[in-house]
Amino acid sequence: MFSEEFNVRFYETDALAHVSNTVLVGWFEAGREPIFKLFTLELDLQNWPLILASYKVDFLEQIYYGQKVQVRTYISRIGSSSFDVYQELWQEQKKCATGTTTLVHFDFKAKKAVAINDEIKATLLVNSYPE
Asked: What is the count of structural domains for the chain?
């Protein structure tokens, strides 16, 4: 599991006094940064090796300003060139949201998916969601 913690910033709240639904996608992306570094340690945007194929977010509880949030990131599926990232957002010991993202190892010059090497697959597997 990868874990990141964030402070909820005032501007991330909405008129209903809870965190806006649009903010979670950004937190989930930031929580995937350790995975990005497996593919490009320097996060080199000129040679980016991943493409987002899909994502889904489920909202379970409201999230509030003034309390930190934690994003827990796991790998839930590994294919030959793609993998699914399952994430949970926690605040005050409550699971407030979940998300699943499909990422594809991608060669932008050739415009096609490429196989994930065995070393990266092994690291992804270590961070699999416990079933």
From this structure: 1
